[in-house]
Amino acid sequence: MTNSKVASIEMVHLVKRFGNFTAVDDLSLTVEPGEIFGLLGPNGSGKTTTVNMISGLSAPTSGQVRVMGHDLRTQTRQVRQILGSVPQETALYEELSAWTNLDFHADLFGIPSREKKARIESMLDLVGLTDRKDSPVGTFSGGMKRRLALARALLHNPQLVYLDEPTLGVDVQSRRAIWDYILALRQQGMTVLITTNYLEEAQELCNRIAIIDHGRLVALDTPEDLKQQFGGSVVEIETVESFGMLAELRALPGIKDVKLEDRFLKVTTESGTNVVPQVINLASQCCEIRDINIREPNLDEVFLHLTGTALRD
Amino acid sequence: MFNAMGYQLRVIWACAKKDFKAALTDRLFTVLSLFVPVNLLILMSLFVLAGGNAPTAVVMEDQGPYAQAFYQAMSQAHSFRLQITSAVEAERLITAGQIVAVVTIPSDFDAQVKQNQPVQVGVQINNLNTDFTNDIRRAIPLSITSFYAKAFPNLVNVSVQENDLYAHDTDYIPYLGVSILVIALMMGGLLQSGTAAAKEWENQTMKELLLSPASRWAIMTGKMLGAFLMSLGSTIIVLLVLILIVGVRPENWGEVLGFSVLSLVIFNTVGTLLGTVIKTRQPVIALSTGISLPLFFLSGAFAPISFTTPLLQVIARIFPVYYQIVVFQHAFHGFALNTYSLGGNTLILVGYAMALLLLVTVALQRATVSH
User: Could you read off the pLDDT of B27-66 as tens digits, one per residue?
Assistant: First the structure.
């Protein structure tokens, strides 16, 4: 169904201004078919504005967006037909039943009447809400609403699914279930675009991640490569007394960053180096070591390094 | 082409059906919006009844034929609600604030009239409300004139030759009731469509609509159709009250139905416009009720606007409510309240409907959920 030669989303020099404020600043990136793509950025970084332009809710000031080869300026309806959206606020009619919500969506997207009932039943079954199909959505938990919104987004068989904070406010069990649904979409060949504030979620789900800040693209890569770019290893050492050889430590070749807080030392090494034994050696010469932890960098550290702020700030 | 049209029609019906179902789930609001216009009809009727005839006690110290004739003249003045009492009882009633006036026909009334001598009819007025006080002050001299015209036809040479414009008189409440039908259409239309549109923004479900491939005009038409169906409820209730309780029967049912539909289109469009622009229900509800009442009073609800001041007439003509009252009074009573003819008034209303539809289309076209 999907033409693999055509990018699912292609943004070229995309700019969006609101008066003097530039929300999206010359953003160019491509989302390939069949991948789960994560769009990350601090609050106000331009994620929502970017996604609104991708879905045709907002027109770019300049630049171009193509979705599955369709130019959004001239083919907005075609784009909406192949796009399934799960907004952060779910946008469900809470006073109506789950079935009525899906039935309404089916009519809005022109699903043939003869297929409608079977498709709704199938989607409710997929997200495990068949037994609650006649209940008002207002009585659902946050996780159930998310699952229903996902079912609704998939009802018209889209080629590209956009999920805005898909697990925000849901319990751990529901989060795992939603992740499984999203991973299953990739197996079906769908392209998935996710915005999330959970880096763990991005790590678990995304093939590639774009980090944007102040409307500009600051990083674009796979989660693994992003972490590699940030550094090779992170060595965390807890000492009995305060560490006093910071200058010597920083002088070691292959050391990228050193942080000392009280008796806790955190050393990030450059990738491709093997300086970890020397770090431990130096620390043991200086003071008595209580605990050592060696690990690879996580996305939180990558994000903090790139944007200067934690994702939830 | 047919498929595209079929799809848009399906969207229209889906939006209407969804809004109708959603409105029915909010039972309190639905009941309130259905019965607010009926409440208004009852309120206005009570107001008219309360302000109609002044309760007046008559102390008949003379029971002669002229005294009786004077009492008859008063009872036919359309200004009093009379009761014959003793002087003591009359004093008690006026002191207790239960009557507006005490009229005392003196014991020498017949004798003095027969002898063509001056006679004084005593009038004691409870002047706490000048509206009633002035009614009494006008009606007593009129009753005296009327009494003389009947008792001594040769003595009163000036008489009235009345030529009626219409074949029958129309009471105040039947006239007002028709105007209240217009306010029922207005409040029902504004509240239903305004809240339905604002609710989509307030609950952020507008995204579901705007992210669909459906055209915005189809969505808007569907939403207005849903509100139209709900507004029909309050219209039917007021119509039933008017016909079955007030006893007003339309002279032309076709006009009543046609103008009801046209008026609901206008009010549903205004409501949708308000909801789309304001985006929250509370101010929409406040504004809908807030603008309905002044427009109702301004637009000739109680009498043709030509009976009011020139400035008010100019202001009234700006709003469609005036033309709606004109066409509905024609539909029910056959009245021609202005010189534009029925067709002219209808065309003006169609013009309003089209201009408002254009406005709401532009508003929805520009509306976006993003910042």
Answer: 887 787 777 777 877 777 777 666 678 899 999 999 999 9
In chain B, what are the domains? 2-47+168-366 (no CATH), 53-151 (3.40.1710.10)
Report DSSP state, residue B279: -
| ipTM of this predicted structure | 0.79
- The partner residue sitting opposite A80, judged by closest CB among B21, B203, B213, is B213
Q: How far is A145 from chain B (nearest CA, A)?
A: 13
Residues 192-251 of B with CB under 8 A from A: 203-214
Contacts of A49 in chain B (CB under 8 A): 370-371
Separation of alpha carbons A94 and B28, rounded Å: 17
In angstroms, rounded to a whole number, what is the distance separating the alpha carbons of residues A126 and B300? 61
Find the length of chain B.
Answer: 371
Q: Are A167 and A199 in contact (CB under 8 A)?
A: no
Mean pLDDT (chain B, rounded): 89
Q: Check CB contact of B27 with chain A, cutoff 8 Å.
A: no
User: What would the pLDDT profile of A77-134 be if each residue is shown by its tens digit?
Assistant: 899 999 999 988 889 999 999 999 999 999 999 999 999 999 999 999 989 999 999 9
From chain B, pick out residues whose CB is under 8 angstroms from the CB of A102. Answer: none
pTM over cut 0.80: no
User: Which among B21, B214, B369 has CB closest to A57?
Assistant: B369
Domains of chain A are: 9-225 (3.40.50.300), 232-296 (3.30.70.260)
Q: How far apart, in Å, do the first and last CA atoms of chain B sit?
A: 35
